[in-house]
Amino acid sequence: MAKDKNNTDQQEQETPVDTKQLETALNERDKALDAKAQSLDDKEKALKAKEADLAKRKKALDAKEATLNEKETSLSEKEQALNEKETSLSEKKQALDEKEAALEEREKAVKTLEDKAKVDKAPKKEKPVSFKFREQEYKFSVNAPENIRILGTVMSQKEIAKDEEALVHLIGGNSSLIEKVYNNA
Fold first, then answer.
1. Cβ atoms of residues 127 and 135 within 8 Å
2. Pairing of strands 153-156, 136-140
3. Strand 153-156 vs strand 147-150: parallel, antiparallel, or unpaired?
4. Which of 115, 152, 172, 181 would give a disulfide with 137, using CB separation of 3.0 to 4.6 Å?
């Protein structure tokens, strides 16, 4: 029994030391757990702050997306309006091209008619005028124009044949516009 008593005394002496160590270890572990809990609380606060920041960012991005969608819709409408305007302008251009072609056709037709009218209206060369000057027979040459400028005025062959002064200038000047007529009788 003495052995058992010794063992029990020893255990009793060891027990308070173990209890102190255990208590100290538990206190340290409790402090460590409190520090971990505090760390987790800090991390949770940081996560909540990040979550709030992300929510703000999401809200801002949603607003930007809505704005971009509105702009895209507006641009689509403008593009459609421009396409319609371009189509309208293309149609107008085609109509103008057709009108221009029709006008060119009409201009050609008018020009053809004008040219034909000029040919039809062109004064037909009459037989050269014949006349007597100082007992001699003369006539205008075939190449003589219908109207001739002489003495500062334009006169027809008939008017010149009646104007003695004009005849003196032409015949006296030996003009090629007047030919002497020779009678072979």
1. no
2. unpaired
3. antiparallel
4. 181
Cβ–Cβ < 8 Å for 177, 144: yes
Q: Which two tokens stand for residue 72?
A: 């895209």
135 and 116 within one domain: no
Domain that holds residue 176: 125-180
Q: Please indicate, yes or no, whether residues 110 and 80 belong to a single structural domain of this protein.
A: yes
Q: Which token pair is 12?
A: 């009793």
β strands within 64-185, DSSP E:
130-133, 136-140, 147-150, 153-156, 178-180
- 136 - beta bridge partners? 133
User: In whole angstroms, how far apart are CA 122 and each of 24, 118, 145?
Assistant: 140, 6, 13
SS3 118: helix
pTM of structure: 0.36
- Written as six digits, the tokens of 16 are 């308070």
